[in-house]
Amino acid sequence: MNQPKIAYFINQYPKVSHSFIRREILAMERQGFAIQRIALRGWDAKLVDADDLREREHTRYVLQAGVTGLILAVIHISLTHPVRFFGALKLALKMSIHADRPWPFHLACLAEACRIIPWLKESGVRHVHAHFGDNSTEVAMLIEALGAASYSFTVHRTEFDRPEFLKLGEKIRHASFVVAISSFARSQLYRWADYADWPKVHVVHCGLEQTFYDVQAVPIPSAPRVVCVGRLCEEKGQMLLVDAVSRLVQKGTNIELVLAGDGDMRPELESQILRHKLQDNVRITGWISSAQVREEILAARALVLPSFSEGLPVVIMEAMALRRPILTTYVAGIPELIRPGVDGWLFPAGDVDGLVTVLEEFLATPIETLERMGEAARQRVLERHSVDTEAKKLAQLFHSII
Length: 402
Fold this sequence. Notes:
Strand content: 15-25%
Number of domains: 2
Oligomer: single chain
Strand order of the largest sheet: 3-2-1-4-5-6-7
Distance between the termini: 14 Å
Order of helices and strands: EHEHEHHHEHEHHEHEHEHEHEHEHEEHHH
CATH superfamily of the largest domain: Glycogen Phosphorylase B
Structural class: alpha/beta
CATH architecture of the largest domain: 3-Layer(aba) Sandwich
Radius of gyration: 22 Å
Number of helices: 17
Helix content: 40-55%
CATH class of the largest domain: Alpha Beta
């Protein structure tokens, strides 16, 4: 029996912050699918994870051939399929009306779709799945308009910052189905989709591989250390976390904070750390591999994530699988997973006083209680976020259309 074939299309792949996509692709292959990886860029990106380096070898890159490759692709498709090309051109221009990016950007999406089509035909792929509802999904939609393949897409979080500009309703209308990573994400898609298209939207959680669950239990350390994992940026709230640590230190509270990650806000965070004289309390790791992230989580008592905007962070699932309680915000899909007093603590986003209070409660909690919370967290995420269980749900959706 021939393997069902699907192409995954992502703006940048592999990417340090997109390990959840890699896990999903590998899980879909375990479900018996042949997966073609396609990305706009990423062939020269800095990678620290051996798994990502291997994935790059299996990925084709749309922009690697430069503008010449795009122009030749447009000429070929426009000459061989003029009617469909004209229809796709009209759709691309429609996407530029009241958008946050001008019409040349949308024509570039059309050119990228033309570039991908020969690859799909070459491999026999008739369906494309995109991650994120931005330009990656627009390219997939234009591939469908050109008659080459149907498409579906997964929505995470950033799409809800500018849904009108992204024309989410239009993308849902043309899609075979849409995946939301949480019930909250599904509710937001309902806001922008026609009621007739609501049945297209399905919840499939991001998942963790068995290796996360198979890690031997590591006792929660006595050191009063918390770790925050993620890109150093405004939306993750690390500046608020440094302010909270400063307040605790001023009160004489012993606390250590590890900021595991890197990003645009690193210089500002480093300045804030120096300003508050927290060099002995706060450490920034820079980009680290998945194995190193795991080590940092296990070396801490808990994961803290003071995010202002999220979908449902995979790092929360990873920490729960490693038996660590979670301190995080009432944002988006997070309360669907974290149970206050059972798996960790929740506090209002942007509330430094609330964050300080939660950190004080956490630091005063006996290790034995934290151990019980960690075990509850592990069981919770095991039930809800096994990558192979979630891949089976996704496989059923794919089988229904190919």
